[in-house]
Amino acid sequence: MIGVFGGTFDPVHLGHLRPALDALQYAGLDQVRFVPLRVPVHRAPPIADRSMRVAMLRAAIDDVPGFVLDERELCRGGASYSYDTLVSLRSELGTEVPICLMVGADAFSSFLDWYRPRDILRLAHLLVMGRPGAGLPSIGRLRELPRERATDRIGDLRKSPAGRVFFQPVTQLDISSTQVRQQIVEGRSVKFLVPDPVLEIILRHGLYRKVAASRAQGV
């Protein structure tokens, strides 16, 4: 069973990595594929370039069994839609392998506004990562999803390749890439917010500080 975790990872931080590890272990995933996006649809373009984001992500996950870097979205033109990522994965993995698209509870609340959400559920399960004890969100238009899609049994995900919604409690760390970048701009340390190998890359290449300098010069 494959987990798919997309994001800009600009930069990758512990708030990405710990929940992904929880999902890998507790949901019994065979691997988690980290898919850095080229052109995100619902957020501003990344600041670090493709090569730096790949370098940071590789440095963060290379020594973690089950974590895999998947660059398919960076190699594809146009906006990065989950639907297209899953179509590409299905062409590679076949129709029978269970795939779990990993999303945060906040992102799940707007799932029906995504590009081709019902087709996404034909291609993958949704593994919703939220705080322990929070339960499966049921907000607004999400009630339009058939009730039978929700399950509290991880075994149900292994019985079919796609179509179920499972809530996985994970360790929630209140860290965001925006917060990390802002602290760097302000000249503060981001140690213990990002893995040490990622911090080393940020410092070596002066990542995100250059943005502050450009803004100061009105560029």
List its traits.
Rossmann fold, alpha/beta, seven-stranded parallel sheet, 219 residues, 9 helices, disordered C terminus, 7 strands
Folded structure, characterized:
This protein has 219 residues and is of the alpha/beta class. It has one domain: HUPs (Rossmann fold, 3-Layer(aba) Sandwich). It is built from 9 helices and 7 strands. The protein has helices spanning 14-26, 50-61, 82-93, 105-108, 117-123, 155-159, 177-185, 196-205, 209-216, and strands at residues 2-7, 31-36, 67-69, 99-104, 125-130, 150-151, 165-169. It has a 7-stranded parallel β-sheet with strand order 3-2-1-4-5-7-6. Strand 2, helix 2 (50-61) and strand 3 (67-69) form a beta-alpha-beta unit. The N and C termini lie far apart (47 Å). Residues 212-219 have low confidence and may be disordered.
Q: What is the topology, as strand order, of the major beta sheet?
A: 3-2-1-4-5-7-6
Helix fraction bin: 25-40%
Q: What is the C-alpha radius of gyration, as a whole number of Å?
A: 18 Å
Q: How far is the N terminus from the C terminus? A: 47 Å
Largest sheet: 7 strands, parallel
Give the CATH level 1 class: Alpha Beta
Shape: globular
Derived from helix and strand composition plus strand pairing, the structural class reads alpha/beta
Strands, count: 7
Multimerization state: single chain
Low-confidence stretches: 212-219
